[in-house]
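Fold it.
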Amino acid sequence: MFRKTFAKWALVMASAMLLSHGALGQGKPNVVILATGGTIAGAGADVTNSATYQAAKVPVDKLIASVPQMANVANVRGEQIFQIGSESLRNDNLMTLGKRVSALVKQNDVDGIVITHGTDTTEETAYFLNLVVKTEKPIVVVASMRPGTAMSADGTLNLYNAVVVAGSKDARGRGTFVVMNDEINSGRDVSKMVNIRPEAFKSPWGALGMVVEGKNYWFRKLDKRHTTNSEFDIDKIDALPLVEIAYAGGNVNDTAYRAFANAGAKAIIHAGPGNGSVAATLVPVLQELRGKGLHIIRSSHVNAGGFVLRNGEQPDDKYDWIVAHDLNPQKARILASVALTATGDTKELQRIFMEY
């Protein structure tokens, strides 16, 4: 009787030890890779072609097969969501992607998500997901500056690092990430700063952390609202309203602003110089458009860290305008589109821009 009891106890303990060490396939996290195209799935005519190539050529199964080392850190499976260059992504693509991510993170057998993406709009997609997907599970957007056929390809290590972060417990609750060039950046802060080098993506306020040889090292947390703390939910959004960006430099005129208004835009992001400055000739035009119900949002096209102060350059209170805080024009467009699904009140919209 004692031998039978001991044998059963030993079997239970051995099974528990095997499970805890992943020997029965349960130890590694489960990561889903959603592929959308981009340079990371690109191919050039020659190994010396690092800047001239065709994007969105390699399907997700071949991307996964190109980095077999990912199997050492996670159970990985893939889905092909799109196969396009990210410059062609539209609001309906963002909605499709966001709803698929939201559905996947609700599954118990999914611990994290990686989205392969073109670099041109990586920061916009990452910020959108940061706003609307209600989860603590890591969501990582990854891209590359060079195609996999180049002798200096950066995509394989970027993808490996992205899977490491997506499967990490210490990445939970920190929002959406962009993982490239060994850095872990917040999807809220990061921007593409240069279009020809692997270290293209930077955050004006610094990276959240780094990935070194399969291990995460964290430096800071994002203080802005995101994911589980966000008031927005992709499952409750059916469509995004039209928000356009008008770029303002020297000798600017009102052509773009009036065209966007006539096309049905609900808001215009004024991408101004410096502190979101508005040329004197534009002020009455923007006042007129605001009077017709179109929201005016002042942003800065300063490359890194454009910071727009309310009432600092223009009397925003008087004109009923909004400032984008430190969001660049393309991210201001994303937030405005999401926020306008919930409210059209200027004060509420300004609160949202300060909190997110």
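The chain has a mean pLDDT of 90.
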